[in-house]
Every structure is written in C-alpha cells, then in structure tokens.
What does this fold into?
Amino acid sequence: AQSVTQPDIHITVSEGASLELRCNYSYGATPYLFWYVQSPGQGLQLLLKYFSGDTLVQGIKGFEAEFKRSQSSFNLRKPSVHWSDAAEYFCAGIYGSSNTGKLIFGQGTTLQVKP
Amino acid sequence: KAGVTQTPRYLIKTRGQQVTLSCSPISGHRSVSWYQQTPGQGLQFLFEYFSETQRNKGNFPGRFSGRQFSNSRSEMNVSTLELGDSALYLCASSLGYGGQGDTEAFFGQGTRLTVV
It folds into this structure.
C-alpha cells in the first residue's frame, strides 16, 4: 500500500544545533514528495517539494531536503535551528500521477527546541 | 493574493446533528481537497473535487459528503455527528490541471469541530 512514514514522533534539539527529520515512502513508483509545517491550531505551510531532477531541494526558512531513491527517503534538514522552528512537521506524498490532489501524510514529527 | 479561507473556524455540535463546513480556494485554483486531522489518526484524506466533480475519495463513511460549486468554492457536510468526528478539518486548494506544479497544495487554517 502507498504510505509515508515518519519514524520519529518527537525530537528535541538545542537552539543553534542542526536538525534532520526522517521520512520514508513506500517502495514503488516515486511519489511527488512534500514537507509541511504546522504551528499549534494552524493550517499547514509548505516548506519544500520534490517532483524529479535535482535530489537536493531548497525550501523556505532555511530548510532543505534530500531525495534518496536507494533508501526510499526524503529527509528534511536545517543547519541551525531557531526557537521559532518548534512545530509539527509532516512529510507527504502524492502517488500515481499529477492528476490528483490526494496527499498521503506521515504521522508527523513534533520538534521541540531547547534554549 | 488571498489564501484559502475556511469558515467557520470553530464549531460545537451535538451528537446526531449535521454540520456544513465551507472552503474558498485561492483564486484560479480548481482543485479542493479535504482532510481530517485527529491526534490518534493524524491527517487523513477525505475527498477531492475538481471542476465540480469528485475526483478522489478517501475511506470515510457515507455520512461525510462534499460538493464543489462553479466558482470552485467547496463545502463538506457531515450528517448524524458522532463524538469521534471531533477533529480539525483542513481544506487545501491547488491548480489541479495535471502538471507537476499543479499538485502544490495550499492549506486553510481549518475548522475545529467539537461534537458533544
């Protein structure tokens, strides 16, 4: 079945430290891949997206993600975390074709930032 | 340009009642998708509408329905509400025409539904 998995439910990092959030997609046709961020009580904001081509994609707020087909992964990274990055992060994929808006989400990773 | 607008932001309903939520997409977007977000189940896809037609449907009972109007605005309806329907309901819009970039979804702030 098509699925997106985020192995880490909760991550705590110190402000200024680097961050990596993991995301794996189910094996098979490569989906379009996205990372979203959600602040409490808010909707989702798109951080970055991957369709094809260059496997390292840059997003907003200093985030980047690397697509690795061999590992079925699309991990999100940031070199130096700011306290304002504390939020919930969702990896999502669209399978099948571009003729659909159906996003399959991972379970989400809550990021806590220590001062 | 204006983002995705969902109304109302908060709702409290009683078990057995029905509710209608509204979503106005970004101007020019033809696809509207709905998601249910709960602490236990996470973000789950409900359905997608494109040009007034349901294009995709998730695994929800028939009590959950939706529609899209000619101006792309969408409504979802939940009949015979159950306690388990308490959730944040999110709407997302995208261009939807079929190009890669057309899949980029923009989300509204959601409607928080509480069933008592």
